[in-house]
């Protein structure tokens, strides 16, 4: 015997700073197109996410030809424990796919690294692609229901990245490294992943000097996006073990 159908709730994205009880929130064109595809009509239930911790519940109204969501209630979720990915940004399409999946696995910040071996890649990620990456991150939380989308930082060289203050544990993805150790549920983690071909010896030395610990994330050499997602999964499981004993 199947379960009841119930009333559907459509999840949409809202701009940060627009969610407050009683407000009629205007939608971006992308969200309006989503409503048109889903054939949503006035009165249907809507959930709004802004990507920076707020989620709202409300209903759809049509003003003229433009849809708006009348917000009835708003909840705010605490910022998650930092889980930072610094990734050698080689092929942009693979990087964009990584962004989508990392958003679902709890990454809080993704930093594209401008590494020596990715510099000559014709299809590498460039600054012009960052807005696409940020939109991909938001679209991903719309699907998975997270209240927080990861921040997509400006590209940086390994040296520039390492000059920024970093707290907590630090992992360097390395096929010759050790199995990652325990991770506290509230412990910040930063993971550095090289591009195709890995970090150069000089880049690797820079990370080691900055107290990054080489860790093995799979039985074989991994592509950059696979290594990044493996690190997120290992970190989530380690935090869950610490949280629940």
Low-confidence stretches: 1-6
Structural class: alpha/beta
Task: Find the CATH superfamily of the largest domain.
Answer: SPOUT methyltransferase, trefoil knot domain
Q: How does CATH name the architecture of the largest domain?
A: 3-Layer(aba) Sandwich
- Name the helicity range: 25-40%
Rg over CA atoms: 20 Å
Helices and strands, in N-to-C order?
Answer: EEHEEEEHEHEHEEHEH
Please report the number of helical segments.
6
Distance between the termini: 37 Å
Could you walk me through the main structural features you see in this protein, from its secondary elements to its overall organization?
The protein contains 6 helices and 11 strands. The protein has a 6-stranded parallel β-sheet. β4 and β5 (66-76) form a beta hairpin. By secondary structure, it is an alpha/beta fold. Residues 1-6 have low confidence and may be disordered. α2 packs parallel to α3 and α2 (92-104) runs parallel beside α6.
Observed structural traits:
245 residues; alpha/beta; Ribosomal Protein L25, Chain P; Alpha/beta knot; elongated
Give a brief outline of the structure:
With 245 residues, the chain is α/β, with parallel strands linked by helices. It is built from six helices and eleven strands.
